[in-house]
Write a structure and sequence with these properties.
Elements: H1 13-85, H2 92-107, H3 117-124, H4 134-171, H5 190-200, H6 209-251
Helix pairs in contact: 1-2, 1-3, 1-6, 4-6
Transmembrane segments: 20-37
Keywords: Membrane, Transmembrane, Transmembrane helix
């Protein structure tokens, strides 16, 4: 029996090139597919970050408007205190005004609580690299610097607020301040003050006008710091609005 051997012809260089090109393109296409999927995933993340940042900025605008209203109440109260305290004599309405406006000075929350969820994620997860629009990145940086500057001013403002507290405790019957809304519109117990006045002969802890003048000056100083804080808030709102406009433009693409 004869055994027939199959003859294998050697491959030509064209066949080797063809196989190499097929393998190369298979690897290349796989790489490109993986790159595209990663690119799409990053663009989705970028979109989510931009949407989240936009919502944070809108919340900041509401927060700043709300706190500016409260700060406006403090400024009005400081003006009233200065107007009344420097009068030569006080009647019963003046005494009520001193107490009512003093309560406003210490019961209005004015520190602006900025949203930080998105910016924290961007920092911790290295998300800034995902934002391709350099103008947006720059505006975010400017907005964050504004928040830092405002916090420095807030620290100074809180110190002045503490001084107002300190002097109030030295000149006013602070026991008539109340958190019960049913007692009075501003938490001022007029009945208790009348009882104290009858027992002690005075509606205040001191009759020294210089102590009250110091009080008026301290509230005036606080008013100045509040006014500058409002100015900074207005600048920050403008930055927020500009950044929201940029974000909306980018998200529309």
């Amino acid at each position: 029996m004869e055994v027939h051997h199959h003859t294998h012809h050697p491959k030509s260089w064209k066949e080797y090139v063809q196989e190499f090109l097929m393998l190369f393109f298979a690897v290349f296409l796989g790489f490109m597919a993986e790159y595209y999927l990663e690119y799409r995933a990053e663009r989705h993340k970028e979109h989510d970050y931009l949407v989240s940042m936009k919502e944070d900025l809108k919340a900041d605008l509401v927060e700043m408007d709300s706190k500016e209203f409260r700060m406006g109440e403090i400024i009005n109260a400081a003006n009233k205190l200065n107007e009344v305290i420097f009068k030569p004599t006080w009647n019963e309405a003046d005494i009520d005004s001193i107490y009512l406006n003093s309560i406003i000075m210490v019961t209005r929350v004015y520190n602006i609580d900025f949203s930080s969820g998105t910016i924290d994620q961007l920092r911790n997860a290295g998300g800034f690299r995902l934002i391709q629009n350099e103008k947006i990145v720059r505006k975010i940086s400017e907005y964050e610097k504004g928040k830092v500057t405002m916090n420095v001013q807030l620290d100074q403002l809180l110190e002045r607020g503490a001084n107002v507290h300190r002097i109030q405790n030295a000149v006013l019957q602070t026991t008539v301040f109340s958190t019960k809304e049913s007692i009075g519109k501003f938490g001022f117990d007029r009945v208790l003050l009348d009882r104290i006045k009858k027992q002690t002969g005075s509606a205040f802890l001191t009759s020294n006008k210089n102590a009250f003048h110091e009080y008026a000056n301290t509230t005036g100083t606080m008013k100045g710091y509040i006014s500058y804080y409002i100015l900074m808030s207005n600048n920050q709102k403008q930055k927020a609005k500009e950044l929201i406009s940029l974000l909306e433009e980018e998200l529309a693409h």
